[in-house]
Design brief:
The chain has 737 residues and is of the alpha+beta class. Helix content is 13%, strand content 32%. The strands form nine sheets. Strands 1, 2, 3, 4, 6, 9, 11 and 12 form an eight-stranded antiparallel sheet that branches. Strands 13, 15, 20, 21, 22, 24, 25 and 26 form an eight-stranded antiparallel sheet that branches.
Length: 737
Amino acid sequence: SAIYELSCEAYKHLGKTSNYYWIDPDGSGALGPLKVYCNMTEDKVWTTVYHDLQMQTSVGGSSPEKLSVLQLNYSATMDQISAITSSAEYCEQFISYSCKMSRLLNTPEGNPYTWWVGKANEKHYYWGGSGPGIQKCACGIERNCTDPKYYCNCDADYKQWRKDSGMLSYKEHLPVSQVVVGDLDRPGSEAKVSVGPVRCQGDRNYWNAASFVTSSSYLHFSTFQGETSADISFYFKTSASDGVFLENLGNTDFIKLELKSATEVSFSFDVGNGPVEIVVRSPSPLNDDQWHRVNAERNVKQASLQVDQLPLEVRKAPTEGHTRLELYSQLYVGAAGGQRGFLGCIRSLRMNGVTLDLEERAKVTPGVKPGCSGHCTSYGMYCANGGKCVEKYNGYSCDCSRTAYDGPFCIKDVGAFFEEGMWLRYSFHSPGTSAKDLVSRTLLSSADPEITAPDLSLNKEELSFSFSTTKSPCVLFYVSSYTPDFMAVLVNPTGNLQIRYNLGGTKEPYNIDIDHRNMANGQPHTVNVTRNGRDIILQLDHYPPTSYSLPATSDIQFNSPKALYLGKVIEIGKIDQDIYKYNTPGFTGCLSRVQFNQIAPLKAALRPTNASSHVHIQGELVESNCGASPLTIPPMSAATDPWHLDSASADFPYNGQAIGDGVNRNSAIIGGVIAVVIFTILCTLVFLIRYMFRHKGTYHTNEAKGAESAESADAAIMNNDPNFTETIDESKKEWLI
């Protein structure tokens, strides 16, 4: 049975993150597994296959040959890549030609100077950004070529460097296996060729499904050709306790898969030696309306059946006797020959490596519907941090709009870097909405949607965020009100955290002090504060939660909340003395995934949502994950880093996990020694610098060095953040390769 998943999509729905994975596009068929990079950062998964041609490969300039042929060798066979492109919804490959006196497509005789060879060794005379049958480059289609007489920049035949580049996206022609460059035989002719990896998005097979509405409904396909070997896999989902999945008959031979009872799946066949049946019994019911996977295989030596991750049941074939399975009837999926058919959903049905198009057939068959609903029952748990699972016709997606997170599974922190003096205000009332309506919608936690707040007061709050800073004191978070009530999270002058509540009824605000723990140490820290009436629960980092209680005289209503502040409090009227002091010079550092009840102020500022009108920012807010809790960003190993592709040293793992590359032990030891030496030197330098600056009373952080001179927000982060290359988001990385 298959050790690897069939596609990146399958790994994504096992909750895996972006990485290199082995996939096996045709199960136990002849293709064999290949190593690809799966990028899970978008709604649809990208599968990337790399080759060995260097970017900007120079051709010509010295040799007087008429044609120069560049060969691309992929980390997969052409058949394997075809299996990926044919099941994908969209594929693309970047191609670029830089030229100096070297023409590309348009020749006097009409035969192009340069062409590329794609799938099935076909020559193609169109270039990136154009399409089949159009002998043009991108500039020819957009009508902005260097010389308007030609359809490519390079065809102007200038002595200066020019370039024609773009995406090839007609997937039936991909991948590019050769580029043949022709116009290089004149003195001064030079060219450089770049070809990107093949990238495919979406997986039409994984979600190809049909719903069987009545127990007599079925789909029929042409006879299954499985004489000496049969490999059948599919997913099913049902609330019925029995039914036939599929059957194909011969004169006496047959092959059949069925749900025999709520806990039994049966695989039976006869090749002329009498019927054989293999049954897998599940300890828990299989009719629980969740997806279950079935894999049945038969060859001349043995037959096997596997359901989900339950133990594989194997039956050896008799040493003598018949081995060929001879079938004549059509293949029936669902009810066959008057038997009680399967009620529910079957998806991703593959017979000997070919996915049957259940969806197309279901469109024209009564009693069977194309597609399937109810994916959230099986996959909803992957939507993390309060993300809501949303059913889609072919799968599901996670709606992160009511969370402080982002990404396909709502696990990517949305955070920002605050320069000194920067602040953000989120007003609970925006122009044009009644205060009552708005507060009841967003501020009251989702658990009590029926409360409309007539007097606009809260008796419970939930706050969570993470931060990192090296400067104290500062104000991290503050909620003001139209009354003297407020709530604040501060870092005091000694670097300790303080939670401060002023709800009235007490002379002084109520403080929770977390002593003996320096929070201004530049490390990311997470803070969770929950108040329900008088009870406050605080959790810091990974320490156990601690409980506190407001004094007996304290009011338990937070009256008339007005605005939420990050980094600094700019509020009219009387302000708490300490907070006033901590306000200058303001917070410097990083805040991430800030959420107060239903409000995510940083996300509203950085992602255009309907809440963005409530946000006011002073200074430039630079998105960064420097304040993210460390658990969400493990440092990249060689195996996960798309800059690092070492397919030669790839070993086959025993199960479908991501693969690490072995590291030479000696080099690791030498590297370790060097690292220790460098670390020691750095420590000494830091100590000396701090000693020099001690008298002046200044303490420079390196948080925002280079931010002033950077051209853009991204450049500022790259200048500042030493770990930027580790934490840069994957979608950008794809383009940088």
